Amino acid sequence: MKDLTPAPATLEPIETASRDEIAALQTDRLRWSLRHAYDNVPFYCQSFDAAGVHPDDLTGLEDLARFPFTLKTDLRASYPFGMFAVPRNQVARIHASSGTTGQPTVVGYTENDLATWGHVVARSLRAAGLRQGDLLHNAYGYGLFTGGLGIQLGADALGLSTVPVSGGMTPRQVRLITDFQPKGITVTPSYALSILDECAAQGIDPRGTSLQVGIFGAEPWTNAMRSEIEAAFDMHALDIYGLSEVMGPGVSMECVEAKDGLHIWEDHFYPEVIDPETGIPVADGERGELVFTSLTKEAFPIIRYRTRDLTRLLPGTARSMRRMEKVTGRSDDMIILRGVNVFPTQIEEALMATPGLAPHFQIELTRPDRMDRMRVLCEMAAGATDTDTGAALAAKIKQTVGVTVDVTVGAPGSVARSEGKALRILDRRTG
Ligand code: DLL
Fold first, then answer.
1. Distance 386 CA to ligand 1 centre (A)
2. How far from each other are the two terminal CA atoms of the chain, in whole angstroms?
3. Of 185, 266, 416, 429, which one has the greatest count of Cβ atoms within 10 A?
4. Using one digit for the tens of pLDDT, what is the confidence trace for 321-352?
5. Which stretches of the chain score pLDDT less than 50?
6. Is the link from the previous residue into 412 a cis peptide, with omega within 30 of 0?
């Protein structure tokens, strides 16, 4: 792999603080955030009152579990600006989810919030080994999606030279990477695969490009995919996580020196993992649904937001702040096939372990005769000749996931490509 030995970075004091120092800061900030939400957002005032809790009840971090959760439906019901805790004219920026699955979720930021966001994204980019003056190719979408503009804020704060290329126009992506010689790329893992295809189409060896590090997020991806991307580009591939409701990219980030999970920037975002059935917090190390509370956000404080992302909390390593394991999937993406829970990431792992197949896939669900069936749509790797790869993949899925699926192996290029977040599940079930 290309050598990425960044100039040593001076970590911020909070990145190496003791757990007691972190907890003390979090307690102070949490008290402020609960009070701010309660005093300024009618939704929080009503939900705290209905649960019989008051911001003054919080004396320690463990008391947070007494406060009610906030759900995506609560945010939708407050469309568009009902969750804002400051007058609209103090909101410097508005982002929103695409709204393809319902009412869009609208989030807002004050000038201070934008500065905080820039700060945590700069910290994330620095953890990836980028330094002032480095060139960054930012292929996350610019617009209402938080990816492009969120990374831009952090890149500006760190002093990078940024190419704000956004998603799409893949031939141009390859051309700009070749011509401008960026050190880093920020992009969804699925779009990185499209860029790889385009390199092949243009006869360009991705291993020969200037890229030393890729910062991938906005959708689940596996360590098997990491190995695939690292080998294909000969660069480091790191995971960045975030969500609009909590901030955007930069809620947590892997560091290049350890690559062992994502450090949560706990000075601004307080994590819990709960049992999704009971809502009760589980101990660190146990798997469950990730819940976040913002500690410093002004325009859009968020209290105990149920992300639906499944992971577990782990102790700090290269930073004192706790890590979250790579997200295995969202509870809403979980397919229950004849009683077995299946996540697209499990299919991805099986696919990566089957030689002769390209890393692109979609999952089609149908319900003939009132029985759910799953078909994996994938394609032959360019130049592959083996014709039994479909059977091999089905067998691998049966063996590792425990379900029987159909597999269609198409020609190279037959699976729909992503320019941002991949659409993994095509739900064609009726009845
Ligand atoms: O996807 C923010 C982002 C942009 C993160 C760029 C990283 C890079 P939303 O569009 O609100 O925000 O989608 C948030 O995407 O709840 C997860 O389900 C998923 N997600 C984000 N990052 C990761 C990741 C952005 N690294 C939703 N691994 C989240 C797995 C991720 N899933």
1. 36
2. 51
3. 185
4. 999 999 999 988 899 998 999 999 999 999 99
5. none
6. no
